[in-house]
Amino acid sequence: MMALVSLLPIVIVIGIIIFFVLLNKRFQVKPVTFRKSKWIIIGYVSILLVAAIGSLFLPSTKAKVVDNNLDEDWENSYYQQALNGNFSSIDSKEIKKSWEFPLTGNTLSFDSSNYEEAFIIERNSDLKDKVEVYYIENWHVMEAGSVKVDISDYIPDVNITMDQNVLRVIGKGTTNVKIAYSDPEFTTAQFLSEYDLGNGYTGSRFFYIRVPENLNIENANEILAEEVNN
């Protein structure tokens, strides 16, 4: 619907021009005069204003638009809390999934498929012969220009298994998220020599992994893993 409103001024102006051309030919009058051109321009500007105002009354998108300060959200995110040693302060309701796996040796390695986000590792002196894994999702936002849209409902789920001390994280495919109306409407864009769309994604989801204090962790440098700041 927004696209139709954006194209409406062009269609109407073309119609006006065709009307005057046909009118001139029919009555064999002089070409469009300055006075007529002035009225065409005035009419065009009026149509742009009407279209711009009319777009405000169109049905809004179902997207969840947020106006949070993302920098502040990140500083106060569960990821930062966990990384700073305050995982226990996170409400258990915010933990989406949890697992517990037995260890059969003193070495743990990772295998990640379709998951490229963070892991936080806590070395715990009280933990013996097992690994505890927690999955937390805080928020997911896609930015299109100055608009921030919550896309949490579209983030693919993940699962985790462990076999022979190999922790396997399996992302369930990928999702392409497209935001409509990310370009400025024609009524605005025509007056801009250039503009920066600025699409981007930011979010906070991660695995929090508790391991025995002296466990040897292999290939942690191949994933986005950080250890808790003690």
Describe the structure.
This protein has helices at residues 2-27, 34-55, 70-75, 78-83, 186-189; strands at residues 64-66, 95-102, 107-113, 118-124, 130-144, 147-150, 158-163, 166-171, 200-212, 216-217, 224-227. The protein has 230 residues and is of the alpha/beta class. It has two domains: 2-55, no CATH class; 64-227, no CATH class. A hairpin with a 2-residue loop joins β7 (158-163) and β8 (166-171). It starts with a helix and ends with a strand. The model is unreliable at 192-196 (pLDDT under 50).
Short summary of the structure?
The chain is an alpha/beta fold.
Task: Quickly list its features.
230 residues, alpha/beta, 2 domains, seven-stranded mixed beta sheet, 5 helices, transmembrane
Tally of discrete structural domains: 2
- Indicate the multimeric state: single chain
Number of helical segments with 4 or more residues:
5
- The pLDDT mean sits at 75
Strand content: 25-35%
**Helical proportion, percent range:** 25-40%
Distance between the termini: 55 Å
Low-confidence stretches: 192-196
- Dominant shape: elongated
* Main β sheet profile: 7 strands, mixed
- Spell out the helices and strands N to C: HHEHHEEEEEEEHEEE
Number of strands: 11
Helix/strand/pairing category: alpha/beta
Radius of gyration (CA) equals 29 Å
Keywords: Membrane, Transmembrane, Transmembrane helix
Transmembrane segments: 6-27, 39-58
